[in-house]
Sequence to fold (498 residues):
Amino acid sequence: MNKIFLSKSKYCSCVQCEKILWLNKYKPETAEKENNDAVLEKGKQVGNVAKRLFGDYEDVPYNMDIDVRIKKTHELLKNKANIITEASFAYHNNFCSVDILKNNPDGLEIYEVKSSTEIKDIYLDDVSYQYFVLSSLGLNVKKVSIVYINNEYIREKELDIVQLFNIEDVTGIAREKQDEIKANIDTINNFMEIHDINNEPVKDIGLHCFDPYSCDYWQYCTKDLPKPNVFDISVMQKRTKFKKYYEGKISFEDLINENINQKYLEQIDFELNKREPKIEKEEIKKLLCSLKYPLYFIDYESCQYAIPELEGTKPYQQIPFQYSLHIIQKKGAPLEHKEFLAEVDDENLIRTFAESMIEDMPCDGSVIVYNKGFEATRNKEIGEMYPDLKAEMEKINGNIVDLMVPFRSRNYYTKEMKGSYSIKYVLPALYPDDPELDYVNLPLVHNGGEASEAFLSLKYKSPEEQEEIRAGLLKYCRLDTLAMVKIWENLKEVTNEE
Fold:
């Protein structure tokens, strides 16, 4: 049998589903890859910082040919280099690079670096595979550890990388999994030997399609399912969806009489029977009547640093860097717009953000958001970071009105919302033919994830590129609050409220 070349990433993908390897080899064009550049960049940044954990190190450049990397690693071990990063090894077509390798006189220590804040099962598969490769080569691996982010660490002026990371010894688990690793490698090789380009493997979908990672081939593997189907039901837990799937209850027609949540049945009913919009006017009026002028329609954008860059912040803390604010001072007044976008090198950008917002909302009116949990939590965090701003943040939170409520509660629902109350579904459902309100027409940034990535990328861009990105961020965030204004106007229209 011709054994396939198996890296640790390929091995881990096969632990999730062997068919991923076959699809990557024979049908890669069917993958629908999400843009995970930001995730990869965070992983790279964390890895580079972690390399300094044990002092000076010798690096095996990742961009070199594999054989060259293996040879360089051998030379470094021979010359008794103490700390080697990206040390590379191969045993019978099984290849791995070790993030950090400690080469002590009494044996080797493997340190696998992760940008996560917890240890996941797949990480144990990862390090166990590395242990297998190195020990199979006759190397004495005395310790295996996982290095991951300590999300309780609060940065002071200087970054403390010892406090930034947790290090957990998993040597016992890695050793216990060796028989499993060997069996899995044999299974993977047999699987790929049996299934060539003309013999596609049959593998049913399941929770493994999303655990530990969402599979790029989900659309391919579900292409023959009826549309719409159980997986199109909004908010329903994946476990419940798969339970219905395995029972053969797949299409909306199959599900119409099932004993499931009323909201799921409502989505199905509206889709199958093309119901007219559901508008519970009295409930919607309660929200409208609670509003007090001036009306402040506001939306925040935030980003997360895996390695905290701002003093007083934690890893992965949501850092608000931008807001858009549409204002209606009184009934019948013209729409005003204000906005804020932080400078990427502002070491006090959270405070600058907060002070600008306080200045832009001086009066005690309704602060209208869409999904208040996010903005309210950021305001609370700001008050905790800056006690002198706490009263202002609490005042803003006390005035918040959540425009999402009638859609989440299904007081207002149409077929086009597809069971969702996200503004990205609600807005086009209410204004289907308005290009001004179409996020697709935006030039650069189209969603919150892209906004976060765009802001984080600014420091690496030229002045011209920064100007273009900042313009894109402002246009995107402005549309979010304009969307809320338009939704408010629609609520008034359908309830005949002035």
Remarks:
- The chain has three domains: 8-191, 225-273, 282-495.
- The domain at 282-495 is CATH 3.30.420.10 (Nucleotidyltransferase; domain 5).
- The chain has a mean pLDDT of 96.
